[in-house]
Design goal:
The complex is a heterodimer of chains A (114) and B (112). Chain A is mainly β and 114 residues long. In chain A, 0% of the residues lie in helices and 49% in strands. With 112 residues, chain B is mostly beta strands. The chains are: A mainly beta (114), B mainly beta (112).
């Protein structure tokens, strides 16, 4: 089982560049989300989606765009990278209904903006 | 959203039990208590969750106070692999859609 797959695992960007972090899940989960984690901190929600064609903002959405054209994929786009976006990014997915809504996370994407 | 309070850090010796506390005094009736842990350089992983009754699984046990204002994650025999940050999180059934609100968590150190 692949679970939640994120690519790339490591990336270095220059300030002002754009890029897309890819996230795919093979569990037919309706819900997908992106978090960022800064050093020594807990995760903070960037954007989330409750199904194909539906997205919404989380706690820290500025500087990021998302779209959800399929159930499986939920890419995160950095429009114009800034050093403040240096962080570790985690994608997550879950069923929206069902007992307890267990959430599954990817292994993370380490992003450095110089 | 209801918040949780956890100690910043705890220590244990290998093969001893560990009790990780969590306070959630403003919990509502439909809030599930979830525990996740994050091993170094990895994404969080699910440990256990419950609503009112104590729960057991292959990883841990969850003891929930009768008034639900606190809970305790119990690792019965700590191993070095259990060294991680443990997060106690409340998820409101049917509305949270997995929107986890992470606090600082408890850093668990396990000594050989």
């Amino acid at each position: 089982n692949a679970g939640v797959t994120q690519t790339p695992k490591f990336q270095v960007l220059k300030t002002g560049q754009s890029m897309t972090l890819q996230c795919a899940q093979d569990m037919n989960h309706e819900y997908m989300s992106w978090y960022r984690q800064d050093p020594g901190m807990g995760l903070r929600l960037i954007h989330y989606s409750v199904g194909a064609g539906i997205t919404d903002q989380g706690e820290v959405p500025n500087g990021y765009n998302v779209s959800r054209s399929t159930t499986e994929d939920f890419p995160l786009r950095l429009l114009s990278a800034a050093p403040s976006q240096t962080s570790v990014y985690f994608c997550a997915s879950s069923y929206t209904e069902g007992f307890g809504n267990t959430i599954y996370f990817g292994e993370g994407s380490w992003l450095t903006v110089v | 959203d209801a918040k949780t309070t956890q100690p910043n850090s705890m220590e244990s010796n290998e093969e001893e039990p560990v009790h990780l506390p969590c306070n959630h005094s403003t919990i509502s009736g439909t809030d599930y208590i979830h525990w996740y842990r994050q091993l170094p350089s990895q994404g969080p992983e699910y440990v256990i969750h419950g609503l009112t009754s104590n729960v057991n699984n292959r990883m841990a046990s969850l003891a929930i106070a009768e008034d639900r204002k606190s809970s305790t994650l119990i690792l019965h025999r700590a191993t070095l692999r259990d060294a991680a940050v443990y997060y106690c999180i409340l998820l409101r059934y049917g509305t949270s859609y997995g929107k986890l609100t992470f606090g600082q968590g408890t850093i668990l150190t396990v000594h050989p």
